[in-house]
Write a structure and sequence with these properties.
The chain folds into two domains: 157 residues, no CATH class; 140 residues, no CATH class. The chain is 37% helix and 18% strand. It contains 13 helices and eleven strands. It is globular and about 60 Å long. This is DUF3352 domain-containing protein.
Length: 365
Amino acid sequence: MWADRSSRVVRAHPVVTVAVGVVVLALVIFLARAWAARGDDLDKALRLAPDEATRVSFTDWSGIRQSLGADLDADSSPEEVHEMIDEAYTKDLTSTSVLPDASGLLQQHFGWSPATLDWELYTQSTEGALMMGHLSDMDAEHLADQLTSMGFTAPEDDPADGGVWDGSLVPFSTFTDSGIDSTITPQVTYIAFVPEHDLVLASDGRRYLSDQVETLGDGHLNDPMTQAAERLEDPLSAYVYDGDFTCGEIGLGSASAADQDQADGLVDAAGDINPIAGFAMAAEKSGDVRVAMSFENDDQARTNADTRAKLAVGPAPGQGGTFDERFALGKVAAEDEVVTMQLRPKDDAAVLSDLANGPLLFATC
């Protein structure tokens, strides 16, 4: 029967053929656009980061709200926003943000918050810290009115476009009389709006914020950081560090002598390791955590893929216990200069925030 059917010749009507072709072409275009959009917010955000940034954290608030089923908007109550923040915290999705503690006040008085932002990027360097939040269809004049009502000092130039608002004298404690349990973050002491990019920029340094408004989009993160970040796939929250920060802050430099001795023994047993030139780690929508480490060359990447895969299933000096108590190790691969590792958290372990602080796994120096 199958032979008979396969030998039959069916002549399709030309109109049907054209229609099918159009549908297929439309589907291909749709899928191509959908694929291109994956991780697009992170890419756009990083293109706006100051080039001197050594530590960058990204939070996809729109994706987090969607993943939690949180239907929030500008009219949502501060309490509803806090409920979303609390749930996101339990899923280890908020450690990359500087806004959670202030979310209620932001929602009620500033006109924007994690309930309405598309994404947040927070950058740090020796020169200063910057928070940028993307707000689709932002009404800068309305947001400027909100700051005026709170007592922010308006800039001399256009208050709704690039000027720096000064909130250093605002008594934020007077805005908590509604019973909202919020603590304002110093990172929103100075605020500027950039309608051209639908951005709210904020910092704890007035001059630094003013400089960043003027040079927005002119910078470029160093290549190792960018190479590592490019291997992240549509993250809900992510960290991106340069090599020096990785070495000094998430290595074992601050661990006890006993922990460092144990770590040295584990590294010797696992094999050679090389300094990480660029580092990225992200919580994905699937629940996995992806790690990307860029190295000086592809030989180092292949060596470190093997070495760090061995370390990832052993003891975790400086943190306690073992890594395999925290996560199941998935695929480890080296491609060009970058090593990627797929981690599946166990028992709701806070892998992203846990591994961002002093693990042997990312020891570099």
